Amino acid sequence: QVQLVESGGGLVQAGGSLRLSCAASGRTFSMYDMGWFRQVPGKEREFVASISWSGGGTRIAGSVKGRFTISRDNAKNTVYLQMDSLKPEDTAVYYCAARGGSGALYKDWGQGTQVTVSS
User: Fold this and answer.
1) CA-to-CA dists, residue 28 to 2, 33, 42, 76, angstroms
2) What is the DSSP letter of 32?
3) SS3 109
4) Over 80: is that where the pLDDT of 26 sits?
5) Are 22 and 34 a contacting pair, CB within 8 Å?
6) Which string of DSSP letters, residue by residue, matches 40-91?
7) Which of 79, 81, 92 shows the shortest CA–CA distance to 38?
8) Which of 37, 79, 28 is nearest to 60 (CA)?
9) Each residue's pLDDT tens digit, 42-95
10) What is the DSSP letter of 31?
11) Mean per-residue pLDDT over the chain, rounded
12) Using an 8 Å Cβ cutoff, are 94 and 38 in contact?
């Protein structure tokens, strides 16, 4: 099990940028694939991006491809989501999550950080 804490959310104008961070506790962070998800009230949680334990494999949702980048620093037990060219429709609570491998479920979740993009 790993504990996750997101930070970096806030209010930004459309076209702006934010970088979210997700700090993980535990010595086995480098063994986990990590993901970012987002959720708007009244809607299902949506996949945004994922990165393999080594950082060598990434996936980005079509809705944010070309604007968002996921990365990780295993030495710092942290995964990042760089969000550029933000749009009002990117407004959501963003969560990071961990899983034990590409075929596993995301079992560990952070508390979320609010991102609000004004038009």
Assistant:
1) 8, 11, 34, 12
2) S
3) strand
4) no
5) yes
6) -TTS--EEEEEE-TTS--EEE-TTTTTTEEEEEEGGGTEEEEEE-S--GGG-
7) 92
8) 37
9) 999 999 999 999 988 999 999 999 999 999 999 999 999 999 999 999 999 999
10) G
11) 95
12) yes
pLDDT band at 28 (very low <50, low <70, confident <90, very high): confident
Block residue for tokens 């933000």: 86
Phi and psi at 90, nearest 5°, equal -85, -5
Any long-range contacts for 6-11 (C-beta under 8 Å, 24+ apart)? 6/94, 6/95, 6/96, 6/110, 6/111, 6/112, 6/113, 7/113, 8/113, 9/94, 9/113, 9/114, 9/115, 10/114, 10/115, 10/116, 11/116, 11/117, 11/118
For residue 19, give the DSSP letter: E
In 3D space, the residue among 92, 63, 96, 67 whose CA is nearest the CA of residue 82 turns out to be 67
Which residue bears the tokens 């930070």?
A: 7
Q: Which two tokens stand for residue 108?
A: 């560990």
Nearest to 40, CA basis, from 97, 112, 105, 104: 112
